[in-house]
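Hi all, a correction to my earlier message: I attached the wrong file for Glycosyltransferase subfamily 4-like N-terminal domain-containing protein. Here's the right sequence:
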Amino acid sequence: MTPRTAKRVLLLIPNLGLGGAQRVFHDHSVELAKHYNVTEAVFNLEGGNLFPSNNPVESLEVAGGGSAFDKVRNFAARITRLRGLKQRLRADVCISHLEGADYVNLLSKGSEKVILCIHGSKLHDQNIRGAVGWLRKKVLMPSLYNRADKIVTVSRDINPELISGFGVKPEKIQTINNFFEVDRITAKAQEPLSAEEQAVYDSAPVLVTSGRLTIQKNQAPLLDSFAALLRQQTAKLVFVGDGELRDDLTARARALGLRVYEAWNNHQLTPNYDVYFVGLQQNPFKYIRPAALFVFPSAWEGFPMALGEAMICGVPAVTTDCPTGPREILAPASTAPAQPIRQAERAEFGMLMPMLNQAATLAADQRVWTETIAALLNDEAERQRLGKLASQRMQDFTREKIFGQWVQAINEVLGA
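and the right structure:
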């Protein structure tokens, strides 16, 4: 039990809904509570708490959305209420996750120390656009981020973006990768599939991808590469996850002539489909472990949890060389190339692939994906080699190896 005299850490995130940052937030909350008195804070609890940590949760009770006037008013209310919460809790340090929380954390700063946790690329995030995107990139980040006592990035390749793109002082930045519960994931991956699910996996080699169905994950071009693959050999493609692009992706698959299974429509699960949308799963790892390949077509990342989890399951990874994270995981001795790669790169711990979001080269890049996947499906020895290396690599990101870095960073900021 944490002593009452321990330092008081306030963790801030906009919400506790579905997302990789929320999962990391939960893991941090659980681990930090072993060293500090931890309280979680959110803008509101709309959507519930999908990742409960058993630590106290304080809601600022400020809604999102609305008109431009409403958004400005809500932003100001969050700052005022967080400032009051910090004072009431006598917080020693406030650590914010996600950009919206960063601004509120910085603008409510009092005597407490402030740490920002940056989860992804800012320069390449396609959601940062329009007038608000311009404001974030040109005004808010450059003017506010240097007020932080420390900025922790989850990937080394985010650092040069912050320094050159937003003028952040290099001495404020430290990289601490996400950690993974390797033993827990390995154990859960052993859970057997149902008889119907196993029949699908037995019927053909399975490609699997997991994550939200969103613009960031860029799954649509993968469907084109997969359709081309089916003209050469049999295979199945399994999507684990859900999101706002669900209908767009299923429509795209059908437009390509693919037979589509949708779990939410209560379809009977048989091997007679090409693409399987199985939705959100309490245990995604049991769908990943028996797959032939894990395919990951993201347009941008931070330090991708889904990729790391698949590698823990011992599945060979075929991933875009997107900013940021995949190269750091698969090819740690290399640096990010000046120009996007246009061919498959056999990295130390998996396959780095062209991104699938460049209109001028998209057709050629999709062919590279199709050819690379086909070659791997026909080379069991190489798949086994890459799968073994993948699981070995993830031993570098265990909770024990990573989280001590967070405790040291917090203690340094607190002068402990």
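Sorry for the mix-up. The domain at 8-179+398-414 is CATH 3.40.50.2000 (Rossmann fold).
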